[in-house]
Design a protein that fits this description.
By secondary structure, the protein is mostly helical. 74% of the residues lie in helices and 2% in strands. The relative contact order is 0.11.
Length: 217
Amino acid sequence: MEMISGGDLAPGDILPSERELMARYQVGRPAIREAMQRLQHMGLVEIRHGERPRVASPSIGALVDQVGMSMRHLLSHSGTSLEQLKEARTVLEARMAEIAAERRTEPDVARLKGIVEEQAIALPDTERFLDFDAAFHREIAAISRNPIFEALTKGVFDWMRVFHASSVRSPGLEALTLEEHRGIIAAIAKGDGPAASAAMTAHLERANALYSKEKTA
């Protein structure tokens, strides 16, 4: 709706009544209600019982969820898209690790270390080990102090975990994963951005190469 995309209405503003919208667009009530449902699904409007729709506040999380629907379809049916996603993830997380090294605080580093220690304890339980693996990567995104990085990291990891579990799970190589995680933390703790980026790149490229090898085996 151009009233929203064009900036005529700001977050929190109430949309015109159904009657006004019907007259403006020369359509019936069912078409207006269907449009409102679609806008709500897109995260552009909020609809509460007994009230007229309002323009929703922008949300990075909602945007990632919308993209996620398309990504799930792509990852389910296109091996090429998965390879492109893994490449993009490597670039994104390498940069995040570099920024995290520049912005980290002692409490940040302590949280990272705590996650990896919990991950080591969870080693016998594959699902819990993977949960802490995701938490490790999300924490690095959080240390970057960029909410877009946080949302994208969560989205990418969740998509890959659900639809291509073998690309984020490497049974028998958990000890190597822990070692690599600790190496990334060490670089971040030192404030060495290039080293943190290189360590993260090596970590993800090793996992990507292993997955590609398993596919062709």
